[in-house]
Design a protein that fits this description.
Blueprint lengths: L2 H47 L4 H29 L5 H17 L1
């Protein structure tokens, strides 16, 4: 195995590891958020029998809705990085920069 093949193998291995890490992240996201919604249901059920503090119930609702939202945004960026998705504005910027630098030299 020559040097270039070793480099290709190392890059492929890193790519596979990155994809595995993304899928682990996705799996944790799904399980944690399912657990949060289950906990939310139990907490709301518990407080319906008691005299609930309305602010506390709203706090729980907002936190349980905000966590998946922001975590999901982070997960999307993780997916974009792992699967090498280039947003159109970044691709256009890269092309403009390449043309600019090609003209300079």
């Amino acid at each position: 195995m020559d040097f270039s093949e070793k480099i290709k193998l190392r890059k492929a291995w890193k790519r596979v590891e990155a994809i595995k890490d993304f899928y682990k992240h996705l799996l944790v996201y799904v399980f944690v958020n399912i657990a949060l919604f289950i906990v939310r249901g139990h907490v709301l059920e518990f407080f319906q029998n008691e005299s609930p503090d309305k602010n506390f119930i709203e706090w729980i609702d907002w936190n349980i809705l905000i966590v998946p939202l922001f975590w999901g945004i982070g997960l999307l960026f993780h997916a974009a990085k792992v699967f090498q998705y280039k947003f159109p504005f970044i691709k256009n910027w890269e092309e403009r920069q390449m043309k600019k630098f090609m003209k300079e030299k």
